[in-house]
C-alpha cells in the first residue's frame, strides 16, 4: 500500500494553473497548500515534514532554482518537483543535478504529475521511516548509558520512555524506593523537545503544608503578611520545560484541588494575582505508593489521578532484575573509584553470589551505597562485601568458597528464601513462581534447611 504524504506544497505565480492543479491533486486525495511565491512557501516548510514540493521555475521574488537550493539546505531529502513552460533541457539537467526529484514540462497531463508524486511520496515515506529508526537507535544507545540495565523489564522501560518522551502526555512513574524513578523522569526530559528548557523537581512531601501553594504557584508582593517580594512558583519556573512532582502521593488534599485546577484550566494563579499566565509544561509525577488504593481510601483525588496518569511507567525493583544487579554494581564500583580517586576494584565470583542473594529493600540506591563503601573500605577483599551487607541488612551467611557448585547452591538458597518470604510461606505460590513440582521444592527446602513455618 502506498501511503499519501500529509501535504503537497504547490508554488506557482500563475493563479489559474495553481487552482487547476490543486483541484486535481485534491481529487486524487492529496492535501494541498498553495503559494504564489517561494518565500511564503519557505516560511511554512520545516525539515522532516511528510511532504512533497511542486514548484514553477520562473517566478518573481525568488526563482525555482534558488527555491530548490534553499529547500535542499533545509532538508536534503525533501522531494522537489519542478515544472516549467520553457522546454529547457539544460536547465532540467542542472535542476536534477542540484537535487530536484523530477522535472516536468508544461503543459502536462495530470496523470504524469500524479505518477511522479506517487513515487516521490513513497520515497519520502521511506526516508522519514529510516530517519526515525536511526534516531530511535541512537536514542536507545544514549539512554542505555543513563538508565543502565539489560534485563527485559528495563529494556522495555527504555523503549516505552523513547515512545513517550517526545510527547507532552503527563507521565506517572511508579516504583519502590530507590528504584530510579528520578532517573526515569530526567530521561523523559532529556529525550524530549523540551530538553533545552528547565527540569524542575518538587518533592511534594518535603515542603511544609502552609508553604506549598506559594512554592508551586508563587505569590504577588503583599499577597499575605511576610510576602515582601513577588515570587515565581515552580509551575511558572518550569515554563517551556518539565515539572517533576516527586512523591505526589504525599500531597495534601487541599493542594490536590489547586493542582487539578491548574492542569485543567492550563493556567497558574499566583496568590494575590488575577492575571493567570498560561501553562506550557510537561508534567511528570512519581510515587512509591499505590495511588489507586489511596484514591479508594479518599486520600488521593481520583480526578487528579487520571489527569497525571495518562501514561504510566513502572520501574521494577532490583530483585526482579536478575543479572542487572551485577551490571549495576560493576558500574557503581567504577564510578565510585573515579569519584573517590581510588584504584579500580572488581568483584569476585563469590561476591557476585552474595549480591545476587541479597534482598535489596533499598534497591538501586542501596546497591550504589554498597559499591561506594566497597571502594572506600580498608578491609581485606575477602571480608569486605559480607561485612558491608551484614551491617546494611540481614543476609544469610555467604558462600564458603568460590567453587561454582557452592555459588550455585548459595544462589539457589537465596532465591528460595526470597520467594518464600515474598509469598509468606505459601508453598503453592512459590511452586508456581519458580515453576517447580512440589516434590522438588520439598527436597530443595530440606537440603537448604528451610522451613515453611519460618516464613508464615
Ligand atoms: N538504571 C539506573 N542506572 C544508573 N543509575 C541508576 C539507575 N537507577 C537508579 N540509579 C541511581 O540510583 C540512585 C537512586 O535513584 P533515584 O533517586 O532515581 O531513585 P528513586 O526511585 O527516585 O528513589 P526514591 O524513591 O528514594 O525517591 C541515584 O543515584 C541514581 O542515579
Ligand atoms: Mg526519588
Spatial shape:
extended
Q: What is the helical fraction, as a range of percent?
A: 40-55%
Name of the CATH class of the largest domain: Alpha Beta
Determine the number of helices (DSSP H or I, runs of at least 4 residues): 19
Total beta strand runs: 12
Present as ligands are: adenosine-5'-triphosphate, magnesium ion
What is the fold named in CATH at topology level of the largest domain? Rossmann fold
Mean pLDDT: 88
In the CATH hierarchy, what is the architecture of the largest domain at level 2? 3-Layer(aba) Sandwich
Helix/sheet category: alpha/beta
List the helices and strands and how they pair.
Elements: E1 7-11, H1 15-27, E2 32-35, H2 38-42, E3 51-56, H3 64-74, E4 80-84, H4 89-97, E5 102-105, H5 110-146, H6 152-165, E6 171-174, H7 181-190, E7 199-203, H8 209-217, E8 218-219, E9 231-232, H9 234-237, E10 242-246, H10 253-265, E11 282-287, H11 291-296, H12 302-308, E12 311-314, H13 324-339, H14 349-357, H15 363-376, H16 381-392, H17 404-422, H18 427-434, H19 438-447
Parallel strand pairs: 1-2, 1-3, 3-4, 4-5, 6-11, 6-12, 7-10, 10-11
Antiparallel strand pairs: 8-9
Q: Would you write up a description of this structure?
A:
Strands 2-1-3-4-5 form a five-stranded parallel sheet, sandwiched between helices. The chain has a five-stranded parallel sheet with strand order 7-10-11-6-12. Helices cover 50% and strands 11% of the residues. Mean pLDDT is 88; it is low at 391-395. It is an alpha/beta fold. The structure holds adenosine-5'-triphosphate and magnesium ion (MG). The site of magnesium ion has 3 residues, from helix 7.
Amino acid at each position: 500500500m502506498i501511503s499519501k504524504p500529509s501535504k503537497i506544497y504547490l508554488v506557482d505565480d500563475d493563479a489559474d494553473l495553481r487552482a487547476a492543479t490543486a483541484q486535481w491533486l485534491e481529487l486524487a486525495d492529496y492535501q494541498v497548500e498553495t503559494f504564489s511565491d517561494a518565500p511564503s512557501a519557505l516560511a511554512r516548510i520545516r525539515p522532516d515534514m511528510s511532504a512533497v514540493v511542486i514548484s514553477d521555475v520562473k517566478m518573481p521574488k525568488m526563482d525555482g532554482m534558488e527555491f530548490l537550493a534553499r529547500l535542499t539546505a533545509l532538508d536534503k531529502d525533501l522531494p522537489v518537483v519542478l515544472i516549467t513552460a520553457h522546454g529547457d533541457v539544460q536547465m532540467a539537467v542542472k535542476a536534477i543535478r542540484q537535487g530536484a526529484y523530477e522535472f516536468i514540462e508544461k503543459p502536462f497531463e495530470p496523470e504524469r504529475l500524479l505518477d511522479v508524486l506517487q513515487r516521490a511520496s513513497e520515497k519520502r515515506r521511506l526516508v522519514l521511516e529510516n530517519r526515525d529508526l536511526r534516531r530511535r537507535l541512537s536514542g536507545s544507545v544514549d539512554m542505555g548509558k543513563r538508565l543502565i540495565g539489560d534485563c527485559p523489564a528495563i529494556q522495555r522501560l527504555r523503549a516505552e520512555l523513547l515512545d513517550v518522551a517526545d510527547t507532552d502526555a503527563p507521565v506517572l512513574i511508579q516504583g519502590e524506593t530507590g528504584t530510579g524513578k528520578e532517573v526515569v523522569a530526567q530521561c523523559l526530559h532529556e529525550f524530549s523537545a523540551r530538553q533545552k528548557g528547565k527540569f524542575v523537581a518538587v518533592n511534594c512531601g518535603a515542603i511544609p503544608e502552609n508553604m506549598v501553594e506559594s512554592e508551586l504557584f508563587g505569590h504577588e508582593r503583599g499577597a499575605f503578611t511576610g510576602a515582601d517580594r513577588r515570587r515565581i512558583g515552580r509551575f511558572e519556573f518550569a515554563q517551556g520545560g518539565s515539572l517533576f512532582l516527586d512523591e505526589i502521593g504525599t500531597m495534601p488534599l487541599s493542594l490536590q484541588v489547586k493542582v487539578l485546577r491548574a492542569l485543567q484550566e492550563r493556567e497558574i494563579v499566583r496568590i494575590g494575582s488575577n492575571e493567570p499566565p498560561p501553562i506550557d509544561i510537561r508534567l511528570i509525577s512519581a510515587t512509591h505508593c499505590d495511588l489507586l488504593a489511596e484514591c479508594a481510601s479518599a486520600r488521593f483525588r481520583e480526578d487528579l489521578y487520571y489527569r497525571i496518569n495518562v501514561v504510566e511507567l513502572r520501574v521494577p525493583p532490583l530483585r526482579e532484575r536478575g543479572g542487572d544487579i551485577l551490571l549495576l554494581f560493576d558500574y557503581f564500583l567504577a564510578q565510585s573509584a573515579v569519584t573517590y580517586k581510588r584504584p579500580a576494584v572488581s568483584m569476585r565470583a563469590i561476591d557476585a553470589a552474595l549480591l545476587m542473594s541479597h534482598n535489596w529493600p533499598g534497591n538501586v540506591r542501596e546497591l550504589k551505597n554498597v559499591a561506594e563503601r566497597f571502594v572506600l573500605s580498608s578491609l581485606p577483599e575477602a571480608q569486605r562485601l559480607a561485612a558491608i551487607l551484614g551491617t546494611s541488612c540481614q543476609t544469610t551467611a555467604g558462600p564458603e568458597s568460590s567453587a561454582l557448585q557452592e555459588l550455585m547452591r548459595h544462589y539457589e538458597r537465596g532465591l528460595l528464601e526470597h520467594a518464600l518470604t515474598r509469598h509468606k510461606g505459601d508453598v503453592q505460590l512459590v511452586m508456581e513462581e519458580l515453576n517447580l513440582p512440589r516434590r522438588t521444592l520439598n527436597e530443595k527446602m530440606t537440603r537448604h534447611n528451610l522451613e515453611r513455618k519460618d516464613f508464615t
